[in-house]
Write a structure and sequence with these properties.
four-stranded mixed sheet; alpha/beta
């Protein structure tokens, strides 16, 4: 369940991770957790159409004789119900969407959240958004301009891959992986005595409400 991903253990782990990164470096971390980054309605349509077609074939070729009204209506009713049921099967939506498409959608949503949450508003342009999308089982990192310049090439992509790999193990595992980034971030952007916490540390999550 999505709500179990961000349980009390995970929340405490993310709190420790943000504190570890911000105490070790000048980076300002914002964690955003989303139930999903898109509706993926094509999955509902595909499943509904396949089930409706199978239902139509059954009514036409079954040894049982169906009334004409059943042949006309029943397959479409069953197809609609099957399409609606897909909303309860996030893994199916994931399977019916290519990895490339999921990655593009999560990246786009992460960049939008970066702006919406004001992660670009730090004076040192040192913000880092950790965007976690549960349905897609994917994490995207968006770094502000100065932080992106000082990070070695490929570091963000490697960190994204490590965080994404930790997703199946739950929120606490992802948080521990974020905490492990503290050393590399401290090397890229060392902590200063005059650093001020400019962004809220609380997790921005919509897992508690249905979308």
């Amino acid at each position: 369940m999505a709500t179990q991903f961000l349980d009390d253990e995970a929340r405490a782990a993310f709190k420790r991770a943000v504190e570890a990164v911000e105490n070790a470096s000048a980076v300002e971390v914002v964690v955003a957790v989303r139930r999903r980054s898109a509706a993926y309605r094509h999955a509902n349509v595909v499943v509904g159409a396949v089930v409706a077609f199978a239902g139509l074939a059954t009514t036409l070729f079954s040894s049982h004789t169906f009334e004409l009204i059943s042949i006309l209506v029943d397959p479409f009713v069953v197809g609609l119900l099957a399409g609606a049921t897909v909303e309860l099967l996030p893994a199916l939506k994931r399977v019916l969407t290519s990895r490339t498409t999921r990655h593009a959608i999560v990246t786009r949503a992460a960049r939008a959240t970066f702006v919406e949450r004001g992660v670009h508003n730090t004076t040192g342009r040192s913000g880092l958004l950790v965007y976690i999308s549960w349905l897609e089982q994917q994490v995207a990192l968006v770094a502000d301009s100065r932080l992106a310049r000082v990070l070695p090439d490929g570091d963000l992509a490697r960190a994204e891959a490590e965080l994404t790999a930790a997703m199946p193990a739950g929120g606490a595992a992802v948080a521990r992986t974020v905490e492990a980034l503290a050393g590399a971030l401290a090397q890229a952007m060392p902590h200063r005595d005059d650093d001020v916490n400019e962004l809220p540390d609380a997790i921005d999550s919509d897992l508690e409400r249905r979308k």
